Amino acid sequence: MPTRIVAPSLLSADFAHLGAAVQMLNESQAEWIHLDVMDGVFVPNISFGFPIIKAVRALTQKVLDAHLMIEEPDRYLARFAEVGVQYLTVHYEVCPHLHRTLSEIRRLGMKAGVAINPHTPPEVLEYSLQEADLVLVMSVSPGFGGQHYIPHSTRKVHALANMIQSYGNSTLIEVDGGITPSNANMLWEAGANILVAGNAVFGADNPKQAIADILEA
After folding, report:
1. Residue 132 in contact with residue 102, Cβ under 8 Å?
2. Is 143 annotated among the ligand-binding residues?
3. Is 39 annotated as a binding residue?
4. What is the role of this chain (predicted)?
5. Cα separation of 147 and 129, whole Å?
6. Is this model's pTM higher than 0.85 or not?
7. Does the annotation place 103 within a ligand binding site?
């Protein structure tokens, strides 16, 4: 069976009880923890930075998967490596020298990811897949949790899966935005490997069961 990973987004957790949220994830079937980093410039919201990530790293052995929704990400790549991030994803839309950025992420010892916004066609990544360990398909407009899934995202996942296969790459496909147990199956079937879920996990009566439901959809 192809890789299936659920990556709950800490952006949707109760920040007054962040340690308890991480402990819950430690006890769950989630293999990754997703960290949404926002600067208030690339997206109209600000989230958290290095002190929070460093604190989370100390609480878990799970893979830390950071999604940078920030301008000029190259300025901070080394800092993310220092605080223990393992997968670092930058946006295609803000990286004029994407090859160089992805190569630097890898040089720093992290896996390199590239994200595309809902309006960005997957074909723009055709010549970047060799440098990308992961492609993140944004299935909502980036910046806020709790949005509804954009239906055409499924076609983008399928197109990326075909592109990756045709080039013989092992690049993983991650999808973020509006993920629920009810739409997870079509994304697994389309070729997704990692699904990011925020409200569907932390807003559930039983978050650990919600993770299992998405994983087994």
Report:
1. yes
2. yes
3. no
4. Catalyzes the reversible epimerization of D-ribulose 5-phosphate to D-xylulose 5-phosphate.
5. 28
6. yes
7. no
Angle subtended by helix axes 181-190 and 153-167, to nearest 10: 30
Q: What is the pLDDT of residues 136-174, one digit of tens each?
A: 999 998 877 778 899 999 999 999 999 999 999 999 999
Choose the CATH number for 5-215 among 3.40.630.30, 2.60.40.1930, 3.30.70.100, 3.20.20.70: 3.20.20.70
Residue 145 counted as an annotated binding residue: yes
Q: Which residues are catalytic?
A: 36, 176
Identify whether the C-beta of residue 24 lies closer than 8 Å to the C-beta of residue 211.
Answer: no
The residues, any chain, with a CB within 8 Å of residue 59's CB and separated by 6 or more, are 19, 22, 23, 26
**116: alpha, beta or left, given left = phi > 0 and alpha = psi -120 to 50?**
beta
The DSSP output letter for 145 is: S
Cβ neighbours of residue 120 under 8 Å, at least 6 residues apart? 92, 93
